[in-house]
Structures are given as structure tokens and as C-alpha cells.
Amino acid sequence: MDIRIGTSGYSYDDWRGIYYPPELPRGGMLGWYAGVTTQSDLLVERGPSFDTVEINVTYHRLPSAKSFARMTAVTPTGFLFSVKAPGGITHPDGYKKLDSDLVERYCASVFPLAEAGKLGPTLLQFPYRFRVGEETLDYLRAVAAEFDGLNPAVEFRHRSWINPEYLTLMVDLGLTFVSVDMPELRGLPPPVLFATTDTVYVRFHGRRRDTWWRGSNLERYDYEYAEEELKAWTDRIRSLTDDPNRSGEETRFEFDLEGDYTDLLKMIRRLAGPVKRTFLFFNNHPKGKAIHAARSLQRSLLT
Length: 303
Prior knowledge:
Blueprint: E1 2-7, H1 29-33, E2 52-55, H2 65-73, E3 80-84, H3 87-90, H4 100-115, E4 119-125, H5 134-146, E5 152-155, H6 164-173, E6 176-181, E7 193-195, E8 199-204, H7 217-220, H8 227-238, E9 268-270, E10 277-282, H9 289-301
Parallel strand pairs: 1-10, 2-3, 3-4, 4-5, 5-6, 6-8, 7-9, 8-10
Helix pairs in contact: 2-4, 8-9
């Protein structure tokens, strides 16, 4: 199984002196991150490089195709970009109709990545208000149709979607379920690990309960993972094998969806055959904490 570990974004100024050398220009960050740029005369000792990154700027604006072409040029063969879908797709005023024109513009933007074989999943992060309903279910079906061939991975922020009926629908639609590590607060999804396609996708947002609803993005994601918190995920990921019928793994759900979610992290239910690849992204980016957590997971999973 191909396991890839990275961060949500890479061009953070507060990573200078922590991961990036203070003198490294912004244009050199991606190369450094991907292990291409080597400047031994700079002051910061080089840490492990990464073979994947999540691009989030596309939620706010679509870079030009030339910008993505430059990204392919400074990353090595085999490097993969997971790209977030525009906010106009996941956070529109209403969910009656998908903006097909915006999907086309997204496709044109990321085409250089696809052409270079460096386009990973397309991340569709829906907001808390995107709850199960007739309109949102129809919208989800439209997303599956419009993003067919772009490896769509869907992150829900409301736990109404953690239901056998809707997870089975994702299998049928070919949508990858995005598992999330976030505070266990009312209404938020629990830290469950499901594979609804041959891809596992996990996002680590941190567990700050005090700032999740009221804080800024910097405050919300300013969280340092402890080794034992990551070990729980390490054990889950290691238990994935290429055999979908291995002993102890069944496709039916055996937990009470209305009850306590605390123990759900222990459960893996694979609904759609063998897992071929796993993406693990850390979004706790303030002060380089995503780098620290990603390095820790690299050490425990890949060594």
C-alpha cells in the first residue's frame, strides 16, 4: 500500500527558522518541501522531505495553469498534489445546482498537474451546514458526476453523514470518504476511518475545543499532537492490508450510531475492496506544528 504523508499547505512564513531556512525565498519553499532544493550553506538543518502536499489556495482563488506548471517543474517524479475544490463548489449560498462552469475552470487550472501525473485527489471540504437532506444528497450525486475522473474526496463537517446508508452511497458514487481528526464536539464527525474507494484520506485538524467555533483559523488549528494521539492512527493505518476479506474485517456496521463515538476510532470498516493508497495531511499549520506531527507519523509509519 502506498502511504503518503504531508501537510495542508506549505508556504507559511512562520515556518521560517522552524522548517525553512530564514533566508529561503518563498519561491523556493515547495522545492525544499519536496526535497529538491538543497542549500547546505543555510542555517536550518534540513528535515525529512515530503512526497505529497495539499493545496488549499484553490478554495479562495484558482491559480493559473502556468502556476501549476511551475509547481510540477520544481517537484520530483512521483510527487502528488491533492487540490481543494473552489469554495464556490462546496460553500455556495444554496445547494440547488452545481456550478459546472466553475468545475471546468478548476479542471483547466489543474490540467498541468494531471498531464504530469502529479494530480492526486480533489478535496471537497463541505461546511457544517451541509447536512443530510434531499437537496444535499442530490448535490452530492452531481459532485460525483462532475468530478468523475478527478478522484473526488469528500470531507463532511457534520456527523449526520456518518451513517451506513450514506457511506454506502459514497461507495456507489465512487467518492472517497475523508476521515478527520478534530475536537469531539457536538455535531462534528467522530474520528472514524472508512474507505469507500481504494483510497484512504485523513486530515488532522487538531483538537482545540476552546477555539473551534469562535477562534480564527490560526487559533483553531494551533494544536500540538502528542505521540500517543498519533499512535492510535498509526495502528489503524497499519492494520489496512490489500486483502479486503481478511479475518475480522466485515463490511457491515456494528456500532450504535446514536451512542458514544469515543470507541469508533478503533473500528475500520472497508466497504469497497482493497486499499491501494493512503493520504495523511496535517492542517495544524501554525508555528510549524504540522511539520512536527508529519515527521512523527513518518517515523512511526514508514520506518
